[in-house]
Amino acid sequence: MKIAPSILSADIANLGRDVKRVEQAGADYLHIDVMDGNFVPNLSFGTNVVRQLRGQSYLTFDVHLMVEHPESWIDEFAAAGADIIGVHYEATPHIHRALRMIHEAGKKAELVICPGTSVAMITDLLSDVEQVLVMTVDPGFGGQHFLPSMIHKIKQLAEIKAQQGFAYEIEVDGGINDQTIAQCKQAGATIAVAGSFVYNHETPAIQIQKLKAV
Ligand SMILES: O=C(CO)[C@@H](O)[C@H](O)COP(=O)(O)O
Ligand SMILES: [Fe+2]
């Protein structure tokens, strides 16, 4: 599986150093959580953080937009250096337009679903995305417990992918550690985001190796 450390749990006063640490440890993506205080009850990073880190890292930037009306932000995050832009199904009545805008900006489109959204709601969109992100916690905070009841969605997405011949990656985000990642992998997930498991440890590289070993 690809590993995408989430900088939400990094030491923000030493963000550049913490990004280098996971880059050198073999991380595949860098997961950047963008929160607007409306769609989720928290604030995090803006375009300036993406732009500054872009100058320092060759990792694929996986930008998870937890903002209302993500259409207003797609071009700005694309210009700042995002490689993959994730938009929540629940964040806009015009999700198809948002996904199209990501492609028009030359980036990979990711569709994200909250725990309360079923796969049935997004089947008409699956041919239009490079990545689907199944939230395995309620979005907004790091360090929450994994919701095992989300596993069936990963299985459903993996089945549809095989049946229809789609190539989307299946990403999981929230409460991922060296135990829960195994369940996700078995269900068909191909990318795992991990924040607190990686960064709430004095040696993030050891944590990444543990995840990669699964
Ligand atoms: O999108 C989010 C939270 O809303 C995540 O990307 C978190 O950053 C994951 O943190 P952990 O659950 O791995 O600590
Ligand atoms: Fe995230």
Describe the model.
The chain is of the alpha/beta class and 214 residues long. It has a single domain, classed as TIM Barrel (Alpha-Beta Barrel). The protein contains 8 helices and 8 strands. The protein has an 8-stranded parallel sheet. Strand 7, helix 6 (180-187) and strand 8 form a beta-alpha-beta unit. Helix 2 packs parallel to helix 3. It is globular, with a radius of gyration of 16 Å. The structure holds 5-O-phosphono-D-xylulose and fe (ii) ion. Keywords: Carbohydrate metabolism, Cobalt, Isomerase, Manganese, Metal-binding, Zinc. Belongs to the ribulose-phosphate 3-epimerase family.
How would you summarize what this structure contains?
By secondary structure, the chain is α/β, with parallel strands linked by helices. The protein has one domain (2-213): Aldolase class I (TIM Barrel, Alpha-Beta Barrel). Helices cover 33% and strands 20% of the residues.
